[in-house]
Amino acid sequence: MDERRTVKVSKYLSKHLRHQPERIGLTLDAGGWVEIDTLIAAAAAHGFRFSREELDHVVAANDKQRFAIEGTRIRASQGHSIDVDLGLPPATPPPYLYHGTIARNLDAIRAEGLRPMNRHDVHLSADRETATRVGARRGRPVVLAVDAGAMHRDGHLFHRSANGVWLTQAVPPRYLRFPEGH
Fold it and tell me: Which Pfam families match (predicted)?
């Protein structure tokens, strides 16, 4: 499977497992799961065909492990804009987590902190390198440090998704550390 096809199938899966399952007639269960055969059939019925082998390749090859397979079911690991309960237990975060963004967002972040926007949670990375890659998707990245230890001590809940992304409802401005010059 070539890289272009892998990306195309991955984006299709993200759209329909995270944001718009109803668009192709899917109904996800409360945890975001759907039967793989149902997904493949629904996609084919709506003009986008892929095989089980292609699906398995996309899941295995995705560097961010965006999808999880459990038995005969699949779901997105996080990033949903639809109502799902991933069933992730609360977790104690490391002292600092990181968030990649771009400079034009900094004024709003200084005023309001990090908000989930159209997702359920704010996504945070365990290391600067990952946060840099995330921020670079939208332009020149700026990496913010999040005092996750202080947030946790102050009662904020954190969860860690199956692919290592840290999730929290919001990050108030007082817990953010901006790089010099920003």
Answer: PTS_2-RNA
